[in-house]
Each structure stands twice: as C-alpha cells, then as structure tokens.
Design goal:
single chain; 444 residues; mainly alpha; Growth Hormone, Chain: A; two-stranded antiparallel sheet; globular; disordered N terminus
Length: 444
Amino acid sequence: MNKAATAGVAGSAGFYQLKGTPSLGLAMGTWGFFVGFAAVALYGPAAKYFQQQMQLGGLAVGLLVAAPQLTGSLLRIPFGAWVDRVGGRLPMLTLFGLSMVGMWGLVFILYTVKSLTVSAYPIVMMFGFLSGCGVASFSVGIPQVSYWFPQSRQGTALGTFGGIGNLAPGLFTLILPYAIAAWGLTGSYLAWLIFLTVGAAIYLIYARDAYFFQLRQHGLDVEQSRKIAREHGEELFPTGTVWQAIIIAAEDTRTWGLVILYFVSFGGFLALTAWFPTYWINLHQMDFRAAGVIGGLGFSLLAAIVRVFGGMMSEKIGGERTAILAFFLVLLGALVLTFLVNFYQDFAAELAIAVGMGLGNAAVFKMVPKYVPAAVGGASGLVGGLGALGGFIIPPFLGATVDALGQRGYAGGFFAYVVLAVIAIGVSWNFRRIDRQRDSRGAA
C-alpha cells in the first residue's frame, strides 16, 4: 500500500475508487489521537485552582486529575474492538462528539458559577469523565494505522503514531498554565473546545479507513474485500465480530502480559502527566507555570519524542529487549524520586522515567501484532484500555499517600513505581524467553 489505489472496484453501491494512502492513514490516525489525547492534561495543570476553590484534600485532587483517564481507559476496550468491525473513522468521530459535550459542560459551569465550592466537585468530575472520552482515541488509532501498514513497518508506523500523538498532553500541560494566566480558566477551556471542534472537522474531512473496510462499506463480502485489499498491499485483516475480537485476544495469556507492561508504561505516563505539576508545586514550591514547563517539557514531551525512536529501536533489537531496558530506567528514576528530595536529582529522575516510559510504550505495541495477530483491534482495546487504567488508579494512591504522610508523601508515593517497574522487568524477561524459544524452533 505504497500509493493510493486508482483501480475502479464494482460493489453493490456502484463503481468507485479506493481512497487514501498509508501516509494519509498514519497522518489522520495520529491527528485524531493527538486531538483526543490532549484531555489527559485537562485537570493536572489546573489542579491547584480547583484545590483552592473547593478546598480539596490529596485523595480528592488525585481522583480529579485522574477523572479523564477513567473513561479514556475503559472505552478503549469496546472502541478498539469496534474498529475491527467498521474501521476507525466512525469510532473516532463518536469519541470526539462525547468529548465536545464534556468540554462544553465545563465551559458552561465555569462561566455560570463564578466561585466553585465543594458541592460542584461531582459535576466537575462528571464533565471530566466525558471530556476524557477522547483519551480512548488511542485504541482506535492503533488498529486504524496498523491495517494500513505491513508487518515489516509496524514498529516505525506505530512508534510515529504514538510519539506524535503523545505530544498533546505535554504541550497542553505546558500551554494551559499560561493560557489560564492570560484568559482565566473559563477562557482557556473555551479555546480548548474550539480546538477540539476544529480538530474533529479536519478528521471528518480527510480521514479514510484501510481498503478492506472501504470495500466492506461498498457492499463486497469479506472474501472479496480481503482479496482486493491484499492485491493493493494490505496484510492485516480483522477476524470475527467486535466481541469475538475481544474474546480471541482475552483467551491468549500473552495479551495479559502486555496489559501489565502497558499498565506500568502508559498508565504510568498518564498518571505522571497529571501528577507531576502537583508534585513540583507542592514538594519543591514552584509556581504553577514553572511546574507546567517542567512537567510538560521534562516529562510528557520527552516521553512522546522518545516513543518515536522506541518504535525504531523495537524493530532493530526487538520489543522484548527494548521493554527490559525501558523498565530498568523507570526503576532507577522511581528509586531516586522516592528517597531523595533535591531538585536537580529529582529532575534527572523525571527524565529517566520519561525515557523509560517512552521506550516501553513503543515496545509494547510492537509486540501486540506479533503475539496477537488474529485480533489486533481486540488486543489493542484490552491492552490500551486495561493498561491505561493505571492513569486513573495511580494518582489517587499518590494523593492518599500525601494525606497519610504530609509533604513527604509527595516523594514516598513514588515507591509504587519501584514495585511496578520490578514486576514489568520480570514480565518483559518472560517475553524475551518466549521469543528465544520461537527463534530456536524456527532455526530447528
């Protein structure tokens, strides 16, 4: 699929031409992910504002900053599998619609209620849940891009997709504090709603599903669609219905190993994108704009950029080896953050974790098509959805640690990442063992 198909195809809807190219498929899948995924940073940079307005404790703040991650995680499972049925375009647009409802609700309540009290907390949480639907765009974009590319190019394509898409939380973590200072929180969220609407419109106009789905939409049966799409270079095809794709993936024990790895790498990335601004403000006494710069540039953007190179590294040395290296870096950074309270050492530790999580995110999704080729969409939904739950589970734990230990809890909470990194190293090592056994059988 190196160029757009120009041959006409006859279907029940008439004579038509296949549209799109792998490059366009990658560009629009990445754009959709970028636009929706920005919601990870919805509450993190603004947490201090909500904390002061509603007089929230550590646990309540942790739950608030994690709210978008809950729906963004859980919806990945059905929406990732839905791609195997209809392609990525309709699921992505549905997520955009839900996110716009949530953002509109936030703008409305902030505009009408000038001073928030704790009674507004459930409403702010609810609109956070809705706005976070866009975070699920990841599990839609992964199979949408995968179906455009052959196996030999999956690592680079998905690494590029994940790396560029992952830039969104970092950029918004960086920009939002300055926007709040200039326009206030209401004006900042209104600008975000406009960005989301324009982004959805661009996707609607230009996005195309892989050829197999175009052929199915024009009335050809599964076998005809496979045959023609394969003639135009498509290699990966969905198997079964939406729920069959999930079941096929869930029955493979290797899927659950990938879930664990993604819980640590991507779930950890989501959690720390939301939590680091709070950490720098409260433990190191930084102002919210400086904390946004360090959290946005030093963590989220770096992890996103590294993810692109992680895809290339995974193709050269294998996803398994890349994952082992990645989680050793996470372990090192977590140990420093847990036991040392020094700006320069903690900042270096943040960078180490960012590099580790960027590499780990790329490594996991290099392994998904390799270990679960019969249900890429279903596996992407399970791995992306359950793995990303770390973004919802970890921040409340970090907040509860602060409630229990006081200021020292902002450092002590990172011991959770020490434990998670050790578990991930063990699982990665087991995948390496499986890969070596496969290689030895192939050589024999």
